[in-house]
Every structure is written in structure tokens, then in C-alpha cells.
Fold this sequence. Notes:
By secondary structure, the protein is α/β, with parallel strands linked by helices. The protein folds into two domains: 4-36 and 300-413, Aspartate Aminotransferase, domain 1 (Alpha-Beta Complex); 43-277, 3-Layer(aba) Sandwich (Aspartate Aminotransferase, domain 2), CATH 3.40.640. It has helices at 4-11, 39-49, 60-80, 93-107, 121-133, 152-158, 181-191, 212-215, 240-243, 265-285, 291-315, 353-362, 377-380, 399-413; strands at 19-20, 24-25, 27-28, 86-90, 112-116, 138-141, 163-169, 196-200, 219-222, 234-238, 329-331, 343-348, 365-366, 368-371, 387-392. Helix 10 (265-285) crosses helix 11.
Amino acid sequence: MFEDALLSEIRGRFAHVEDCPFTGKRVFFENAGGALTLNAVVETSTRFAAIPDNQGRDNPASRALVEVIDRARADVRDFLGAEGGSVIFGESGTELLFRLIRDACLGAGPGSALGSTVEHPASRSAMARWAGVSSRRHVLIPHDDATGRVTPDAYAAHVMPDTAVATILHTSPVTGIGMDLPGIADAIRAVAPECFIIVDGIQHACHGHIDVAGAGVDGYVISPYKVFSRHGYGVAWASDRLTALAHDALISGPEGNWELGTRDTGAYATFSDVVSYFDWLGAQVSHAATRTERLAEARRAIHAHEAALCQAMIHGTGNLAGLADLPGVTVIGGTDNAGREGLVSFWAEGRPSAEIVTALNEAGIRTHTRKADHYSGNVLDPLGQADCIRVSLAHYNSMGEVRAFLTAMRGILG
């Protein structure tokens, strides 16, 4: 875990770590719904919102904006470990998943489409729609209810030589369990080497390692508001061969351009703030000499810190019982799942989840109810559950906050 001094410095770089601007002091365990925002992002957003100039003009201010955009594209490649291809800033992560999946389905050769039942509807809905439009059979691999994941072996059992487009969820925002992305991609490529592979990395991006080039995928999408930036934009990377397919573009416009209209330069700049933060953190936890190494070290430290918090939340700390030992509690994905990434979802037998979330709110602890709706029904329905409580962490959360949560839960379920 992070030492106290470093954790204090980390927390000082984020807005509203301890206090909600509407309700006052609270613990923030709703990071999967949108992580806290870096102070640098707030400052950058304000600064760029006031700039009147536009991109692509012959004046110094315009050229400065273009430099900001170019730098941000390079930062995204560093963040994702991507080589070549195109960096795309769009409306949202969901919108970008729909666009990449649409273009792959419409542009790939004949064949089926492959995904899994654990996927968020952002990718699953997009594939269902565009597989239908392009007359492809849409194969859904069942995930394992006990572990909340789908494995490379499961993909290997379903991929066919004619599989033309495949989607992978890197981490589930309901179970909190990460998938073996390189292993799944390898399983697909072993049978269908030309398949277009598109990854939903929206939940994973602030918790674990990303190596797009190493995984050998064609698209990777994130939502910056879940990785310490702000709402209002999404970021994606698309491989050269995916970029070469036909997609929406202006007539006679720049070749390979994905972006439509003028995007907010401040969005680009705020993602550079995110990458700079990871770079800074990597320097605090290691002696890494290169930016690539510092980004990797930051993610290793984040993963280790969050794993310790999740372990304490599930199994207890000191004299406080964990969720696994509280009466009637079931933890989704199991209590000892090595794939867990900063998120614990559970239900308590005989207690409505919404009632528990309300009680936690009253104790100053922000969590969220997940219902068996179009967002989470794919996970909850097979478990026979109408809802659950999602407690989502980030690396700026502390063991003291976990203790406050467990103390409150003991009172609620006692």
C-alpha cells in the first residue's frame, strides 16, 4: 500500500476527496460511476474554456491549440501502450464503441461476430445492432457466474475461422473482475488471425495495466471521467487497418480522420493532465528512467494499493469483520478472486440493496445500487438477484475509509 505521506500527497491532487460540495464530509466509494477529478483537470478546463480562438487558423493562438492536440494524441498512445493507428476524441466512450464496432462490422469480410455475456451494454448493444445490419451471426460466450469473468479458454471454445469481429470487456463495472486481455486476444488470433478485435477498457483504465500493442487488438476505448478527467468526451485508439476501413468523414477531408467537427481543445489538454499525473506517480513509487516505465510502475502501485483495500473490505482488518463474515452477505465474483480490480459488489439476504445504500449515505459513505436492468441484468439475472450494492474504490481511498465502511456495515446488518 502507499505510505501515509504519499497517500496524503495523492489525495491532495484531487478535488472533493473528503467533502461532497452538496452534503459535506463523506467517503467516496462510487468511483465506478465516475472517479474524482484531478485539480489540474479543473484548472485546465477553466483555462481552455476562456480561449476564443479555434484550431486550424493562421495565428499564434490557433497554432498553440494544435500543439496541445498533437501532444494529447501522443500522450494517449503512451497511456495505452499503442503504436501507430489513430487516436480519436469523441462524444463519450459508449459513442466511440458504437463507432468502432459499426465500422468493423460494415467493413470486415464475411463472417460471424463474437462477444460475451459479461460485457457492458455499450459494446454488447453495439455489436448486436451492427452484426444484425451487416448480416452476421452474433455469438455470445456465457461468462462464469461464480467468478464474474470470461476466460481465454471460453473464447477459444467459441471462436471460428470465419469470426470477423470480436469484442472484449477488459474489466466489468458490475463484478469488478478483470479479464485476461492478451490471453483472450491470442485465443482469437490463433483461429481467426484477421479478426477485428475491439476492447471496452472503460472500467479498467484507472485500475490496471494497459498494453494495446502487446495485446494485438484493433481498438481500445476509455471514458476519461472514469480515469480522473471530466465528463463530455471519450477517447479511443484504432489500429491502422481499422482506420483504413470506410467510416463517416467529410468529403475531400483529411485521409484517415475519424473526428467530425471541432472538438474541445480543453478535452485534449485535460487528458494530458491525466497522463502527467500517472507519470508523476510512477516517479514517486519507482526509479524508472523512462515515461513508459513510470506509467507501468504507477499502475502496479495502484493495483497493489487497491487490492489491499479490497482484501480488507472483504476479509476484515483489525477487529473489524469483513463483508465475507457479515450475516447474509454474498460477494459477487467470490471472496478470493485474483482478478478483482478496485470494486466489490454484494448483496445481503433479506435486506433491500437500496435500503443499505441509503443507510451508508446517512453514515457519510457514498456507494451505489446496481439493479437488474439493461446495465447490470446480464450479471444479476443469472444470480437470481434484483439488485446489489456496488462499492467502488480508487487508489486515493484509504484504509481508514474502509474501516469506516465496515463499521457502518456492522451497524446496518447487526
